[in-house]
Amino acid sequence: MTRPIRIAVTGPCGSIGYSILFRIAAGDLFGREQPIELRLLARDSPESQAKLKGTMMELSDCAFPLLAEMKGFTDEKQLFDGAECVFLIGAQPRKDGMDRSDLLRANGEIFRRQGRALNEMASRDVRVLVVGNPCNTNAYIAMRNAPDLKRECFSAMMRLDQNRAMARVAEKINAPVSGVEQVFVWGNHSNTMYPDIRFLRYKGHRLADQFDPQWQEEFIKNVATRGGQIIKARGASSAASAASAAIDHMRDWILGSEGMCTMAVPSDGSYGIPEGLVFGFPCLCPGEARYQIINNLPMTPDVRQRLAVTRDELLAEANAVADLLA
Ligand code: NAD
User: Are 297 and 172 in a shared domain?
Assistant: First the structure.
């Protein structure tokens, strides 16, 4: 039988965690032939441990044939021991009176600690996806605190933004989303992101020229603020769609993507983005857990300006956590 892949998840009992675990265990990540081992983090409190115990009881009751082993931990080093695939979802939510910089620092501490633990304990070929916000900067902090791991081991999630953009295009052209191709999102997972449809195709046919500039501006704003719209409508933040996007991201990264996909990854200097900054880029994944940044797309002054805005926001975030970087 194939050896199980060791998967570690933080925040497993939060809204996203509770949705992603059952899909991973059902085979949505690595397919129906690949057994998996789940390692799950509970915080060091009786409530958190009880919640994890209940979640693990439910996972067990699903009798998933692919779930070869499952363990709970409170210690991050033990959690990451030999981990090959890591979802960093757990993060402190913004509390009353906290501004973005307070949140950045509160979560920065978590991701510094987890970066160090990954550095010491994870497989040298680990693939880490940071979902917990502010995800780009959290991934940057974790990466900078893991100097013995290749920086290509780290990424942050902007696939939900890409999926949202694809869904809005499909609605606009009144066609199934499965034919929508070459949509991706640049920059930070925040309101400054730039969803780019200049190269959009539907089933191989160029479409981008058909949209008027006013619709395009509304589209960009709509994608960037979709998270807030969901909170308003549902009274809770995106959870199942975020879990689904996290699976899309990790599956494409490890097994290969069909076409372009958005990944926030450490910049290699492409498009003038400072090296190392975790920035949303259009990527291709050839398989075997590799990705390539597509680095030759044409730029216009307008696009350069949009990229500069989101780059500057990420630089300011990195600056605010400079003392947390190794
Ligand atoms: P949630 O509040 O339901 O769950 C968060 C989990 O994090 C909880 O299990 C909690 O125990 C854990 N946690 C809290 N403080 C912690 C700490 N100090 N150390 C370790 N774990 C801690 O949140 P959720 O809806 O599951 O969202 C999780 C994160 O994902 C949030 O930061 C959210 O903003 C982010 N998110 C990102 C995207 C994206 O596209 N990148 C989309 C949606 C949500």
Answer: yes
11 Cβ inside 6 Å of ligand 1: yes
**One-letter identity of residue 123:** S
Same domain? For 116 and 179 the reply is no
Tens digits of per-residue pLDDT, 232-256?
999 999 999 999 999 999 999 999 9
Contact between 126 and 109 under an 8 Å Cβ cutoff? The reply is no
Domain count along the chain: 2
Could you report the per-residue pLDDT of 141-182, keeping only the tens digit for each?
999 999 999 999 999 999 999 999 999 999 999 999 999 999
Has residue 306 got a pLDDT over 80?
A: yes
- Ordered alpha helix ranges (H), the chain: 15-26, 46-61, 76-80, 100-121, 135-144, 159-173, 213-224, 226-234, 240-255, 301-320
Using most ligand atoms within 8 A of CB, pick from 16, 157, 162 the residue to mutate for ligand 1. Answer: 16
Q: Which two tokens stand for residue 85?
A: 């695939």
Please check whether residue 105 lies inside any domain of the structure. Answer: yes
Q: How far is CA 243 from CA 88, 89, 227, in A?
A: 12, 9, 14
Residue 11 Cα to ligand 1 middle (Å):
6
Same domain, 54 and 131: yes
Q: Do 267 and 169 lie in a common domain? A: yes
According to DSSP, the β-strands at 290-293 and 194-196 are: unpaired
Write out pLDDT tens, residues 205-235: 998 778 899 999 999 999 999 999 999 999 9
Task: Write down the residue that tokens 């719209």 correspond to.
Answer: 229
| Domain, as residue range, for 31 | 5-156
CATH number at residue 150: 3.40.50.720
Looking at the structure, do residues 170 and 124 belong to the same domain, yes or no? no
